[in-house]
Known about the structure:
Elements: E1 7-9, H1 14-24, E2 28-31, H2 37-42, E3 50-53, E4 63-66, E5 69-73, H3 78-83, H4 91-96, H5 103-108, H6 111-117, H7 123-131, E6 134-138, E7 143-147, H8 148-151, E8 152-154, E9 157-158, E10 165-172, E11 179-185, E12 195-201, E13 205-211, E14 218-223, H9 230-240, H10 251-275
Parallel strand pairs: 1-3, 2-3
Antiparallel strand pairs: 4-5, 5-10, 6-7, 6-10, 8-9, 11-12, 12-13, 13-14
Helix pairs in contact: 9-10
Amino acid sequence: MKPAAFDYARPDTMDEAFDLLEHHGNDAQILAGGQSLAAMLNMRLASPRILVDITRIEALRTVGTFDGAVDVGATVTQDRLLRWPGLTTQPLLTTVLPWIGHPQTRQRGTVCGSLAHGDPSSELPLVLATLGGRVILSNAKRTRTLSAAKFQTGAMRTALEPGEMIVSARFPTAQEGQVYRFHEVSPRRGDFAIVAVAVVADSEGVTVGVGGVADTPSVRRIEWLETDAFTDAMNEFAWDLHATNDVHATAETRRGLVRRLGAKLIEEARDALSLC
């Protein structure tokens, strides 16, 4: 299929972009990398009246550290973030980025675009949620900050309002004594995950994030005092996600993957902590 007809605008400044978004409201769609949006346009799952291409806006191209977090501008690609020398400040991002798509798609796909798309099986929303990250949103009148949990409201649904755009995403940097682990199972390397599990462990316990099962990334904190049998804790977590059957896997398969991957990564993280 081909997309429905639409207008195209390419503003040079944030103010120009906000004016366009405010004027067109729900009829406007932001275009950054386009790796998800282009496919949705072709299948007519999205039919905006106008695409607002933000790739020329210099203020959205920055990546750095701010307020204890890796701050990623709205047009920073996954490949650019992967090659950024400061990425060592957040090992979970370093580990996860090579799992996203393929080198060709990472050249165009943006970090914030993945968050805005809100696919339940996407890796970056899972990382943001597991780390307790934030999304910075702006329109012509205000700027607001939302936690990952409040930003993604459902499968491919977010708290973005008409006339609003993501300015940046902030992934908290690593703290001393933390250990990070990640693994996913997918039909092929680079495909969306059937189940993905991220772990952040410290001396008091472990934060476990699961993607690909519920409508949004799910995060649970487990204290070490409770986890002599952390397989049981992951079994309870797996059932609480209310997995369903689809063409890729049964609910039973997904629960099994959550249990096994979670327990394996928790054990690896605990062993790594003992060596610190």
